[in-house]
Amino acid sequence: MVPLEWYIALSTVIFVIGVIGFLVRRNIIIMLISVELMLNAVNLSLIAFSHYLQDLKGQILVIFVITVAAAEAAIGLAILVSLFRNKAVVHTDKITEMKG
Amino acid sequence: MLPQLFFGYFAIVTIVLSIVIITRKNPVHSVLWMLVLFFHIAAIYLFLNAEFIAAVQIILYAGAILVLFLFVIMMLNLKEELSSERFIGEWPIGIALGLSMLLFIFFAIVKLVPGPLGKYTIELVQKETHTKAIGKVLYTEYILPFEVASLILLIAIVGAIVLAKKRT
User: Fold this and answer.
1) Which of A8, A15, A49, B150 has its CA 20 to 30 A from that of B82?
2) What is the rounded distance in angstroms from the CA atom of residue A38 to the CA atom of residue A16?
């Protein structure tokens, strides 16, 4: 039997890799992929808890997380398409209109 | 011994694949490696007795979201993308922030105390079949969140069309 802590540690490592990818890459597509990576890491920990605590609520929550991930990918990619139509760049450094 | 070996294989492969995904220069390669990663994560779900979620993972993530990513990448012309710098100038700060976060969460995991056990034991779920058990909980106890999820999908459809439509 694999202990619960191993799954949580694996999920943490994948989540942190997603965070690092979001912080260090300049390409917006890769940043969106990193967000998907983080959502998958959370799903993994939810299912591990659901199995070890013998409760199905974690898996229900995973279904909702997948729904939100699909909606987020659709909206994010639509924003990306309209951004590319206006500016023809996908680099975050070159999008500086709002001086943020 | 065998479960630990399985878990070790899948853990190492998922971690290596995630690092590969965030370091590729070409986004198409990233998305294709992501496909392999999703299959491995689905295998971990099977290992945790969550067949339905594993199927949904493959159908929705590998079948829908990754295809959406590939479509958009192929619509955009990313020629000059391949010859430019792939990381931001301040990348050591990003890695340091990520590693400090890892440290914090590991300190929290060490102190983890699991809560009380629920009533859905493995034998009960196997007797009732997994999809039926999930469906019973989803359509009785969580019916309102389920309806809200359908609204979220509707907003995603309308929002994507409005955002990506050409201004006339």
Assistant:
1) A15
2) 8
Residue B85 has pLDDT above 80, yes or no: no
Q: What are phi and psi of A79, to 5 degrees?
A: -60, -40
Taking the Cβ of residue A94 and every Cβ of chain B, the question of whether any pair is shorter than 8 Å is answered with no
Check whether B155 has a pLDDT greater than 90.
Answer: yes
Domain limits, chain A: 4-94
Question: Is B102 in contact with A16 (Cβ distance < 8 A)?
Answer: yes
The answer as to CATH 1.10.287.3510 being correct for domain A4-94 is: yes
Residues of chain A with pLDDT under 50: none
Q: Which residues of A touch B143 (CB under 8 A)?
A: none
pTM: 0.91
Q: Taking a contact as any Cβ pair under 8 Å apart, which residues of chain A between 33 and 72 contact chain B?
A: 33-34, 36-37, 40, 43-44, 47-48, 50-57, 59-60, 62-64, 66-72
Distances (CA, A) of B145 to A49, A96, B148: 21, 38, 5
- Its ipTM equals 0.90
The number of folded domains in chain B is 2
The 3-state DSSP class for residue B142 equals coil
Is the pLDDT at B135 greater than 80? The verdict is yes
**Domain extent at residue B135:** 115-168
**Beta carbons of A74 and B160 less than 8 Å apart:** yes
Q: Is A6 on the interface with B (CB under 8 A)?
A: yes
- Dump pLDDT digits (tens) for B117-128: 888 888 888 888
Contact yes or no for B97 and A19 at CB 8 A: yes
What is residue B141's DSSP assignment?
T
Q: What is the pLDDT of residue B168?
A: 65
Count of CA atoms in the C-beta half-sphere (13 A) of B165: 8
